[in-house]
Structures
1.
Amino acid sequence: MSNDAKRPARSRSSTRDRILDAALDLFNGRGPDRVTTAEIAESVKINEGNLYYHFRTKELLVLALFARFEADAVALVATVDGADEGAAETYAGFLRQWFSLVWNYRFLFRDLVGLVALAPGLVEPVRTISAAMRLAVADIIGRMQKAGLVTIPESERNAVLTNLWIVSTYWAAYLTLQEGVSEFGPQQLEWGLQQVSSLFRPYLSAEAIAALDALAKSEM
């Protein structure tokens, strides 16, 4: 899967958008702490003064990229509305798209500890979107239960939802901090997807398991 897979199309006409696109690619590749504003400006073919006109600090760049991620996450959740709520493929597709979204903004999760030091203003937005997305995931699981695709006992639901959120969002940080992985590719994305699938599998119907298996076999 390419780095830009499933990234929402954006107008590249404005200098601000081009700066954000370049910063995202560079941050994903090497981490914000190893990328200078001079390199970002050079990538966009502008001078640093022009970059500072749009973003006075690297923190503001990070916050703007997080705002992009937040908007894309909200838009992704909205795709479930109006979809076939009784089809296992609807939810398998959502899972795939969520992982693609995290992949496209992977520096936000892979480098989270360092980012908080670089951009303290990131703490509250991260908490806000985390809370909103956990509610959205809970709603999606509720729809799946209503459709007979998954059965999670009430006593286990909160723990399962929490673990789903942790694994599906912070798998990149785990690989970096715990396993020492510094280079990320499709193999690491597939690993994260499989971890989340293993959390779901004990509660899924036969139809949902078939959709999950098809998801695992599909091309990244």
2.
Amino acid sequence: MKLEVSSEKHLVYVEEIRNEMEDSAKKRGTGIAKRSSEYLGKKISEGNSIIAIDENGTWAGFCYIETWTNGEYVANSGLIVSPQFRNAGLATLIKERIFELSRLKYPNAKIFGLTTGLAVMKINSSLGYKPVIYSELTQDEQFWNGCKNCVNYEILMMKERKNCLCTAMLFVPEKVNMNKEKDFESINKDNE
């Protein structure tokens, strides 16, 4: 399995990724904010995502970076694994790589996530995220507008954006001097 920083060569997978995100949200009955093909394509083209591809060139998994409040906050969003590759630890590998890429590109940013999934909570905890209240997250209106497509949006608004069904988790970085070239190479290496 290869885990790569995305580039234009990965645009061929956009529709599969978008469809799987939508199907997965419907099946689980939980909130995954809907993203357009154009939106996902931009993340892929900009190198702001990690994509997993098997030895046959089949798309296996994906996650992207989103920035908020002028780069003060970063979210690792849209984690999805194709059904045929689930339950093999791939989600953990993707989350580790997207976390590394986020730290490399935005070393001083607070990294956060909202999730209803216990597996993602465990992965985030292993990366150093801590559960927080919603006021600890970005207050950027663009971020909260992204929740409008979620099935739980009415709950979020009814609770005045103070909480919802998702658990908020936050990683606050220490000031670290990262060797960007070396670290970027390690993020883009193949995972054997």
